[in-house]
Specification:
two-stranded antiparallel ribbon; 0% helix; globular; mainly beta; single chain
Length: 79
Amino acid sequence: MKFDKIHPFIRYARIFDESAVPDDTTLIPRDARLFYCYEGEVAIEIGDFACELTKGSLLIIKPGLAYKYQMNLNTHFKI
């Protein structure tokens, strides 16, 4: 999947792994977030719900919806 092929628009795109994820920090996006898991697995907690992302998974989070990463220190991922 190429970022420039997603429409309507992607304002900012990046690929990051577990080393770039903030520790136990709740994030509240001002715009929508789209996560695509390239490899490994990670859980993203949205309120009382934990969404497990594995290779090939896609997740969209609406603007203003608080989320945080749940990480196992032994888990490698790239989203």
